[in-house]
Amino acid sequence: MRIHIATDHAGLDFSTHLITHLGAAGHEVIDHGPTAYDALDDYPAFCINAALAVAHDQAHGIEALGVVFGGSGNGEQIAANKVTGIRAALVWNLSTAQLAREHNDANVISIGARQHTIEDATSFIDAFIAEPFSGDERHARRIAQLAEYETTGDIAGKNVEQY
């Protein structure tokens, strides 16, 4: 599988570990930066580029997922979710990593590099990658509603308020 990763200065050491770990597991890892430490760098472009690459690959039938991380993971998740077709989930334990895929068919996860050990964060990522989407009708229906809102600004028959 192709795995797109991105971070900021807070996750740079973890990024190096992750490239080696995922590569050893047989994945093709694409690093969207940064490649050098800069305490003043900005995560949005790095994370958006990783998310764009995931969306592009998936649209072209390439099996791909993304991992973005920073100090808390919150901003990185927000940035990734700005990309059409991306469902980025903030992950903080094994259960949330698995459920992100199983119930939400998340294609990107975000992790707080300052919130977890490298070993724990790596286990979350491995669990996320290994977990398939359940395909259950209720989950697929909800994901379709999110996609409908993302493209039309409404969810037919669900009374989404328009302001």
SSE class: alpha/beta
Instruction: Work out the oligomeric state of the chains in this entry.
Output: single chain
- Strands, count: 5
Helical element count? 6
Approximate strand percentage: 5-15%
Q: Order of strands across the biggest sheet?
A: 2-1-3-5-4
Could you tell me the mean pLDDT? 96
Biggest sheet descriptor: 5 strands, parallel
Share of helix among residues? 40-55%
Q: Tell me the Rg in angstroms.
A: 16 Å
Q: Secondary-structure element order, as H and E? A: EHEHEHEHEHH
End-to-end Cα distance:
41 Å
Overview of this structure, please?
The chain is α/β, with parallel strands linked by helices and 163 residues long. 46% of the residues lie in helices and 15% in strands. The protein is built from 6 helices and 5 strands; from the N terminus they run βαβαβαβαβαα. A 5-stranded parallel beta sheet has the order 2-1-3-5-4, with helices on both faces. Strand 1 (2-6), helix 1 and strand 2 (28-31) form a beta-alpha-beta unit. Helix 2 packs across helix 3 and helix 4 runs parallel beside helix 5 (118-130). The longest helix is centred in the N-terminal third of the chain and has 17 residues, at 43-59. It is globular, with a radius of gyration of 16 Å. The model has no long low-confidence stretch (mean pLDDT 96).
How does the SSE layout of this entry go?
Elements: E1 2-6, H1 12-24, E2 28-31, H2 43-59, E3 64-70, H3 74-80, E4 88-90, H4 94-102, E5 108-112, H5 118-130, H6 137-152
Parallel strand pairs: 1-2, 1-3, 3-5, 4-5
Helix pairs in contact: 2-3, 4-5
